[in-house]
Amino acid sequence: MSGTKDTALERVSKVMAARGLCSRREADQWILQGWVLLDGKKILELGTKMMPHQILTVAPAAQRAQRQWATVLLHKPIGVVSGQAEEGYRPAVQLVTAENRWREDPTKGGWTPALTRGLAPAGRLDIDSTGLLVLTQDGRVARTLIGADSTVEKEYLVRVSGHLSAQGLKLLNHGLSLDGRALRPAQVDWQNSDQLRFILKEGRKRQIRRMCELVGLRVTGLKRVRIGNVRLGALPLGQWRLLGEEEHF
């Protein structure tokens, strides 16, 4: 009987993340702040578990803190890395400055140093690729875009050289594997004589370049133009804007 009860127990932080309240790391921070309640009582111990019938709530202070989290949309240039600096290349977060903010950004609020605190990429773009890169302080956004169960579409415009047969195009859409693992179905079609459009629901390392190599193509330019419902639009190269309250991936 005790084994059945143990099986039903789940960590509070895991439940909070599964419900989309925040990330597991943020859940632990909220618990330490005293912002998480179980059946109306504060829990202060990390690793606390709960039963399915118990009522989980968060304090208004947590919700206020959450509303202050920022998500930045950056038009990443070539030669900038998405995450940590490497081999002398600048990390994308260093472009999030007052000077680089898009003058036509329709969102409210100005730049402050706090904007870059804890700002991390939710997904990657290769150093030799350009386009829409998302950096966020919000664990919910990161989970939506790069969680293991994410199915958010990413759209790319890809310039290529080489010959692509009808069978090759069919394989790009479905049938290729990387590192011994089958790729999810994609949408790939010609935009003009040397440019393909890729719509993917996953993001393996250098995935598009490697897919193209498998069908005899070489990528000469790659630009991400959309993530979910959010488009790069007219955002200039090297500049950024905030994600609007009405925008959702």
Short summary:
The chain is an alpha+beta fold. It has helices at residues 2-8, 12-18, 24-33, 60-67, 139-146, 166-173, 207-214; strands spanning 10-11, 36-38, 41-42, 49-50, 56-58, 71-76, 80-81, 90-91, 120-121, 130-136, 154-161, 177-178, 181-182, 187-192, 195-200, 218-227, 230-231, 240-242. A hairpin with a 2-residue loop joins strand 12 and strand 13 (181-182).
What does the model show?
- It contains 7 helices and 18 strands.
- The chain is an alpha+beta fold and 249 residues long.
- The strands form 5 sheets. Strands 6, 9, 10, 11, 14, 15, 16, 17 and 18 form a 9-stranded mixed β-sheet that branches.
Strand residue percentage:
25-35%
* Euclidean distance between termini CA atoms: 44 Å
The helix content is 10-25%
Assembly of the depicted chains: single chain
- The overall pLDDT average reads 88
Uncertain segments: none
Total number of helical segments? 7
Query: Which term fits the overall shape?
Result: globular
Order of helices and strands: HEHHEEEEHEEEEEHEHEEEEHEEE
Largest sheet: 9 strands, mixed
DSSP, total strands: 18
Structural class: alpha+beta
Gyration radius (Cα, Å) is 21 Å
